[in-house]
Design a protein that fits this description.
By secondary structure, this protein is mainly alpha-helical. Helix content is 53%, strand content 10%. It is globular and about 60 Å long.
C-alpha cells in the first residue's frame, strides 16, 4: 500500500469540491492529528470526556487555494496536491510514532482543564440523557438517526 498511517485519499470528491465550490475558498487548512502511544484508533468522545486522552498532537498548514486548484497548465494539480499532502501526513505520522514528535512542527502546549470542558460535557449530556432515558426519547433518537442517515445519503447522491 502507498500509505502506512493514513487512509487512501478520495480524489474524485476532492476534485468536485474544488471545481464547484472553489470560488468560495481562499485557503485550505490541512490538518494532521496524532494521538500518543502510537494509537492510530480515533478516541471516542467519552474517552476525551473521561480524560483518557490527555494529549493530542496537531499539525496545521494553511495553504492558499490557488495552489490546490487545477490550472490550464496542469489539469491534475488538485489531485497531485492531495496525494502529496497525504504522503506528507504519512511521513509526519511515521516520524511521530518513532519519536513522539510531529516532524518539523513547532511545539506549543495547550492544556484543557476540567473547568473548560465541564460545561460542554454538561450541555451534551443535557441533550442526550433525556432522549436516552425515556421510551419516547429513544424513539425520537432512532427516528433522528434514521432521518440523518437517509438524508445524508440522498444529499450526497444528489450533489456528488
Amino acid at each position: 500500500p502507498p500509505f502506512e498511517n493514513v487512509l487512501f485519499p478520495k480524489p474524485g470528491g476532492f476534485e468536485i469540491l474544488t471545481q464547484t465550490l472553489g470560488q468560495y475558498f481562499e485557503v485550505v487548512y490541512d490538518v494532521t492529528i496524532a494521538y500518543p502511544n502510537g494509537d492510530i484508533r480515533t478516541p471516542s468522545f467519552m474517552e476525551f470526556a473521561r480524560g483518557d486522552v490527555p494529549v493530542v498532537h496537531l499539525h496545521v498548514s494553511r495553504v492558499p487555494f490557488n495552489q490546490v486548484t487545477n490550472t490550464t497548465e496542469n489539469e491534475n494539480q488538485a489531485i497531485e496536491w492531495l496525494y502529496n499532502s497525504y504522503k506528507e501526513k504519512d511521513d509526519r505520522l511515521e516520524h511521530f510514532y518513532q519519536t513522539g514528535k510531529l516532524a518539523n512542527t513547532p511545539s506549543q502546549e495547550y492544556r484543557l482543564s476540567y473547568k473548560r470542558t465541564f460545561p460542554t460535557v454538561c450541555f451534551y449530556l443535557s441533550f442526550c440523557l433525556p432522549l436516552l432515558l425515556t421510551a419516547r426519547g429513544r424513539g425520537i433518537w432512532w427516528r433522528l438517526s434514521i432521518l440523518y442517515a437517509v438524508g445524508g445519503t440522498l444529499v450526497s447522491s444528489i450533489f456528488l
